[in-house]
Design a protein that fits this description.
With 345 residues, this protein is α/β, with parallel strands linked by helices. It is built from twelve helices and 15 strands. The protein has an eight-stranded parallel β-sheet. A three-stranded mixed β-sheet has the order 4-3-8, covered by helices on one side. The radius of gyration is 19 Å and the shape is globular. It comes from Nostoc linckia z8. Belongs to the glycerophosphoryl diester phosphodiesterase family.
């Protein structure tokens, strides 16, 4: 069940929403992202105790919610090993959806985005269904398709505790009419085996996420010695192309940096992936100097332009308005002619 793509206008994937302007993974962040020009909105998906998919970057939620302030949940604090790492905090799989709905989101990196602290305590944790509803409603309002780009987080772990992500993910997508290779959906994972399994159950486009270090956790469990570096070789890409339609790659795999943070020459990865029929979506683009290469301090637009000119097919961005502006400057436009509002403080 595979379909190959050819590169066209680069898509803008709102990374956890417009997370540069609002606390990540909130309906407010997703709604703003759409207003700022995003083509797709990206929810990371984890499971509740009662099997509902919700949007959080991790199943440990003390960094992105006010759970630590809820005395009624003090006894839920615990330590667990997640993908080989010991983590202490509060975990989504220990809460029902009703309980999680009493929590409120907060800014994950307040030291870099102090302006977002203004929104701490205002927004609920959204369900996957609520995010789909938002995308559909906004698509009708602005007369352009807003796609969804869900990621299965820690799929091996959730399967091990009896809360597999894939079945409710596909059931929710099917119930909402997302079917076929041309549906405005990409399903992504840093693991391999769950994507391979999904490829036998759906025609929806699949994305193999690739980091610049480490290896897929399902490889760790199975004893597979291959790393992400092995997966970006020609033979690795050919294997990915057997079950996926795109790669979502750390941008340093496209243009690496030296020890000072200065960019080096582009690698051949974009060309190699396209030769295998794979789309290339790069992550993560952020405006803060803390994240930018030395060459583009104070100039995030320059970084986007460099990567767009390489011919990649999309970017994951915390600031979709910046990506949109560079797209326009390079002659790319989406179908809507409506003006975009500036982000509100």
């Amino acid at each position: 069940m595979t379909k190959k793509f050819t590169g066209k206008t680069p898509i803008i994937i709102a990374h956890r929403g417009a997370s540069g302007y609002r606390p990540e993974h909130t309906l407010a962040a997703y709604e703003l992202a759409i207003a700022l020009g995003a083509d797709y909105i990206e929810p990371d998906l984890v499971s509740t105790k009662d099997g509902v998919l919700i949007a959080r970057h991790e199943n440990e939620i003390s960094q992105t919610t006010d759970v630590a302030r809820h005395r009624e949940f003090a006894g839920r604090q615990t330590s667990k090993i997640i993908d080989g790492e010991l983590k202490t905090g509060w975990f989504t799989e220990d809460f029902t959806l009703a309980e999680l709905k009493t929590l409120r989101a907060k800014e994950r990196i307040p030291q870099l985005r102090p302006q977002n602290i203004l929104y701490d305590g205002l927004f609920e944790i959204p369900t996957f269904q609520e995010i789909i509803d938002l995308a559909k409603n906004k698509s009708g309002e602005i007369n352009r398709h807003i796609g969804i780009y869900p990621e299965t987080k820690h799929p091996t772990y959730f399967k091990s505790i009896g809360l597999p992500l894939e079945k409710p993910l596909l059931a929710t997508l099917t119930a909402n009419g997302y079917q076929g290779a041309n549906a405005p959906v990409f399903i992504q994972s840093f693991e391999v085996s769950n994507l391979q399994n999904l490829s036998t159950k759906t025609d929806l486009p699949l994305v193999q996420l690739l980091n610049n270090t480490g290896k897929p956790y399902d490889f760790v469990i199975s004893g597979n010695n291959s790393t992400y570096t092995d997966l970006v070789t020609t033979s690795g890409l050919e294997e990915i192309a057997k079950y996926a339609q795109a790669i979502g790659i750390h941008k340093n795999l496209l243009v690496s940096r030296d020890s000072t943070g200065k960019l080096l020459s582009p690698t051949s990865l974009n060309i190699d992936a396209h030769a295998c029929g794979l789309l290339v979506h790069a992550w993560t683009f952020r405006n803060e100097d803390y994240f930018l290469p030395l060459d583009f301090l104070g100039n995030p637009q320059g970084e986007y332009e460099l990567f767009f000119k390489l011919g990649i097919d999309g970017v994951f961005s915390d600031y979709p308005d910046t990506a949109y502006a560079v797209n326009e400057n390079l002659g790319f436009k989406f179908c809507s002619d409506s003006p975009l509002p500036p982000p509100q403080p």
